[in-house]
Write a structure and sequence with these properties.
It holds the Pfam family WWE. It comes from Dreissena polymorpha. This is WWE domain-containing protein. This protein has eleven helices and 16 strands. By secondary structure, the protein is of the alpha+beta class. Among the domains are: 165 residues, von Willebrand factor, type A domain (Rossmann fold), CATH 3.40.50; 78 residues, 2-Layer Sandwich (Signal recognition particle alu RNA binding heterodimer, srp9/1), CATH 3.30.720. The chain has a six-stranded antiparallel β-sheet.
């Protein structure tokens, strides 16, 4: 991505960071940001931080060069965010999922060199990459991670960007001009959650309620103006929809309310409270990150396929908190050992010897121990995991 599209990208990021910074300064809502560069190489350009000037500084040094393989970048982002971020509970019952903001033209690019027979083969390759990207978005959905897709450039593929976002957990298509809504994401969700809680509390007291008036009062208390209203109303509509945002598949979805955490397999662990800032208006409510749940498969943990049609799969978490799937052969060996009541299984991962210890939910490699997990997956999940593992760095 070069020229005007890259300038558009940098302009959006600068304005987005300004909005995040203002939400932090004016309302005490601190959001950690990280930057992953999609290019040569695809890498974590800056780890999670609340030092926004550091992010600005490193972006000033970025230069567009080489290919920009989106599949590789989103795979890295999934591994990085899944290991280093947590959902937040705001209000009584509203989860804000971690999000990945994707700026791209959303035209598929391969890591590989161009084909000799360009047009026909490249077209087939692009469709294959798009399919893998959708499967990857479904994994984002399973992990309660959102994709907010921001198409840039004259040749942007908005249709595919929307499709990608909608397959993640509550993701959205965002215009490059809509940096204010993107930067006030947490603030708008806190305000919307407060409005929903107040409406539900009034209903519980059997009071005559005017939902619009309650929303108006909450927005006034939070010192919102007219330009905030549409975005907040949109969030309220999502929270009140009674459905899990985002579709994991075209098949029937397992029920999961977007405003509750009973079925998410997450354990509440209060870590910090966002303090009120003097004369800033609320939000100043408790925010509770959530830690991951069980290692055994749970109903509805993957897309809409029935559990009877799914297969067990094993993965391990490396020292960088990235989850790495074992190979199909290794999974067969692990399952055989588990089903025959053995205490461990000896397998290989990328040519390295691993010992999976069933009683401890651990694996041992070169004298160190790492977490392992077992989950039920369908054929699409399996394909996505295997494809994703190709882009993981060596251990």
């Amino acid at each position: 991505m070069k020229g005007e599209p890259f300038k558009e990208l940098i302009k959006f990021v600068d304005a987005f960071i300004d909005e995040v910074d203002k939400a932090n300064w004016n309302h005490g809502l601190e959001e950690r940001l990280a930057v992953i560069m999609c290019g040569s190489p695809t890498t974590v350009l800056h780890p999670f931080t609340t030092q926004y000037d550091d992010i600005r500084g490193i972006l000033d040094q970025c230069r567009p060069e080489g290919k920009t393989p989106l599949l590789t970048a989103l795979t890295l982002a999934l591994c990085y965010v899944d290991g280093k971020s947590e959902a937040i509970l705001v209000g009584e019952n509203t989860l804000i999922a971690p999000r990945v903001i994707v700026l791209s033209d959303f035209n598929p690019t391969s890591d590989k060199e161009p084909f000799d027979n360009e047009d026909e083969e490249a077209g087939k390759a692009n469709k294959k990459i798009q399919k893998h990207l959708i499967q990857l978005a479904k994994i984002y959905c399973q992990q309660m991670l959102s994709l907010y897709c921001v198409p840039v450039g004259q040749n942007k593929n908005k249709k595919f960007a929307r499709e990608l976002a909608e397959h993640s957990f509550g993701g959205e298509l965002i215009s490059a001009e809509d940096f204010q809504r993107a930067g006030n994401h947490i603030r708008y969700h806190v305000i919307a959650a407060r409005a929903c809680d107040d409406v539900e509390a009034a209903m519980a007291r059997n009071e005559d309620i005017d939902a619009e008036e309650i929303v108006k009062e909450v927005m006034s208390e939070a010192k919102c103006d007219g330009k905030d209203k549409d975005a907040i109303v949109k969030v309220i509509a999502k929270l009140q929809s009674g459905r899990k945002p985002g579709a994991a598949s075209d098949e029937e979805e397992p029920e999961k309310d977007s405003r509750t955490n009973e079925s998410t397999n997450f354990k509440k662990n209060k870590v910090h409270v966002v303090a009120n800032v003097a004369d800033s208006g609320f939000p100043g409510r408790d925010q509770m990150p959530f830690g991951g749940g069980a290692t055994e498969p749970t109903p509805g943990a993957t897309s809409g396929q029935r559990n009877a049609d799914k297969m067990p799969w094993w993965k391990w978490q490396d020292s960088q908190q990235f989850w790495r799937p074992f190979s199909e052969e290794a999974v067969k060996q692990i399952e055989e050992a588990k089903n025959t009541k053995k205490e461990f299984a000896q397998v290989q991962y990328k040519g390295k010897n691993f010992m999976v210890l069933f009683n401890e939910n651990k694996c041992e490699f070169e004298g160190k121990r790492f977490d392992v997990a077992r989950e039920l997956v369908n054929d699409d999940d399996k394909m996505s995991m295997i494809e994703m593992d190709k882009y993981m760095s060596a251990i």
